[in-house]
Amino acid sequence: MKPLKLVAVSAGLSQPSSTRLLADRLAEAARRHLAEERATEVRVVELRDLATDIANTMVTGFPGAALREAIEAVTEADGVIAVTPIFTASYSGLFKSFFDVIDNTALAGKPVLIAATGGTARHSLALEHALRPLFAYLRAIVVPTAVYAASEDWGTGGDDRTEGLAVRISRAAEELADLVLRRPAAAEPIDAVIPFAQQLAALRP
Ligand SMILES: Cc1cc2nc3c(=O)[nH]c(=O)nc-3n(C[C@H](O)[C@H](O)[C@H](O)COP(=O)(O)O)c2cc1C
């Protein structure tokens, strides 16, 4: 059986990047859950390296080789982890532009885990008011747990009221793995549509 393909898209800009770190932690957790049933290949797409190509594609409509390859990887993935830094209370422009240049049917029916990093925990709901609707529009199957990591979340374990980052990562990754494993294999294309009258005729005694 072919290994499953998991693609993590990181729109982090800094080096090192907390967004990339979150993407790596989520991808590793999902790979571990999937590995209980299927071998899984993980690939990380760093949008920082594709920024110029993405901007050119917005203007010309023609992606360069590296961007084309990244788009293919996302389109063919069994599951996608999409992670953005929060800029001005929403996803970053680079993150949005990448999903703007992908065909708007490429994610249909595909399990997607959404995640974000931010300077303040106050903007965690950007996942619900910005990222979830974006992927709903693209008809992706978005996992219920969205993961937000504010600066103060790194290295802390949560408290009585809030779960720590590690717990949220593990829960979201498990939800993604469950969706990926339950997803039916792509259906064979239907060659010919049998006319309704012919189907009815076949039922007559
Ligand atoms: C232009 C800009 C706007 C930002 N706006 C917000 C914001 O509205 N809310 C927030 O929580 N953090 C905001 N931040 C902080 C980043 O989300 C945060 O530093 C992020 O984790 C950086 O990710 P990186 O380390 O992968 O580059 C902003 C940062 C920049 C550069």
UniProtKB/TrEMBL annotation:
<dbReference type="InterPro" id="IPR023932">
    <property type="entry name" value="CE1759_FMN_reduct"/>
</dbReference>
<keyword id="KW-0288">FMN</keyword>
<dbReference type="InterPro" id="IPR029039">
    <property type="entry name" value="Flavoprotein-like_sf"/>
</dbReference>
<keyword id="KW-0285">Flavoprotein</keyword>
<dbReference type="InterPro" id="IPR051814">
    <property type="entry name" value="NAD(P)H-dep_FMN_reductase"/>
</dbReference>
<dbReference type="Pfam" id="PF03358">
    <property type="entry name" value="FMN_red"/>
</dbReference>
<protein>
    <submittedName>
        <fullName>FMN reductase</fullName>
    </submittedName>
</protein>
<dbReference type="InterPro" id="IPR005025">
    <property type="entry name" value="FMN_Rdtase-like_dom"/>
</dbReference>
<keyword id="KW-0560">Oxidoreductase</keyword>
<dbReference type="GO" id="GO:0016491">
    <property type="term" value="F:oxidoreductase activity"/>
</dbReference>
<feature type="domain" description="NADPH-dependent FMN reductase-like">
    <location>
        <begin position="5"/>
        <end position="154"/>
    </location>
</feature>
